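User: Is it possible to get a 3D structure for a protein together with its bound compound? The compound here is S-adenosyl-L-homocysteine. I've pasted both below.
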Amino acid sequence: MRFVIENFGCQMNDHDMEKMGSVLIDHGHVAGKDIDDADVVIVNTCCIREKAEQKFYSLMGRLQHLRRKKETILGVTGCIAQQEKENIFERLPFIDFSLGPSNIHLVAEAVEKAAAGRIRTSAFGDNGGSPSLVIRPHNTRRGIKGYVTIMKGCDNFCSYCVVPYVRGREESRKGTDVLAEIREMAERGIVEVTLLGQNVNSYNNGSDDLSFPELLCEIDAIPGISRLRFVTSHPKDISPDLIACFGTLKTLCESIHLPFQSGSDRILALMNRGYTSSEYLARVEALKEQCPGIAFTADCIVGFPGEDDEDFEATMRLMETVRFDGVFSFIYSARRSTAAALLPGRVPPAIAHERLSRFQKRQRVITLDSNRAMEGTRVEVLVEGQSKNSADELSGRTRTGKIVNFKGDPGLVYKLVEVDIIKGYANSLRGELPDTPGR
Ligand code: SAH
Ligand code: SF4
Ligand code: F3S
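Assistant: Yes, that's possible. Here is the predicted structure of the complex:
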């Protein structure tokens, strides 16, 4: 059967989509492109903010029509499936199966049961030994970049966040399994590996298996891997051993995504983040000292309950101090079952929007400045493909994660090349191969 997976949410979900695709291909199904031509449509869902949920329900409206017309098999997986559990069949009576993030290994079975006689499948278990952790998406990885899940779940219970409820408790995958998967990827030609988890730096906490820094060292030694990245890190778990890996391990890229969420200590405490703004800044300083030129990106929330003008100014100050290369910023969205949903001091939407736009405007200038500061430097670029805008242009990324577009031979695709940066823009850099004639 021809299947299409519609995906929402984070990189964990992107990777779960790859895993489901791989399982389905193993069972003889074929990946399609268009939902109108598909026999099976799976929607892999996210509920981190209200907007993500709204997008899902509006897509389901469209799929209900398709189901009436073509009897398409429909499945809902991921975080909304887990949040709603069996209720999802009441809300969406026309779907055939629903699987939580720990049960995506059942996807082929669920499709086959639906095809055989409209038998419904549901599974939302999360009691350790998560099978979704061990799936290797060997069929779906193309190109030179690959993702590897190293842990699942989250035990941090930040007061605004739904993840601990929908992804369950933290569980790390065995070091030997992670290393075996990466060796296999390297043999298939993958050169850049990103380790995935809600909180990768608490990998194997409290166990005698490899620690996170030890895992990084082992991966660094795998032949064929030239770039190593990881997302996401929690500032409270950045250890001296992890800091020491930067600038020391040759494959570990000079960039880190380190969400700060707020610059106000009062709000950080209400968020249950487990650090103060000065502790956050101390970690940033230690990383900069160990690895000059390291790029910082982050997530931030504005309009958290009780956030006043002064709290927001503290967030602006933190942003100014770190000078991030980029920040994903969001307006606080109240989520069911979370502690923050019960807090007083709701920030009026107009004020939250105003704060967000002020934050984003300033961050755009800082990002542009940091891109311009690259002008005149020579950097290593991993060429990912031809540029979307122009046929004779190539596009790739620096080790710090910045996009570089430059003229070059398509034969350079998938290669690591040295490029001179000639111009910095808001979202990318323009480069030139050093031996370009006429310079
Ligand atoms: N595990 C990661 C990312 C979690 S979700 C981490 O801890 O960093 C990605 C981002 O979404 C968070 O960093 C946060 O900035 C944002 N987010 C999470 N819940 C939110 C909510 N209820 N409202 C607005 N933004 C939220
Ligand atoms: Fe959510 Fe906090 Fe866990 Fe990140 S660390 S997933 S923000 S609870
Ligand atoms: Fe969304 Fe679930 Fe990821 S809620 S952000 S898809 S862990």
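The chain has four domains: 2-123, 140-253, 280-373, 378-432. The longest strand covers residues 378-386.
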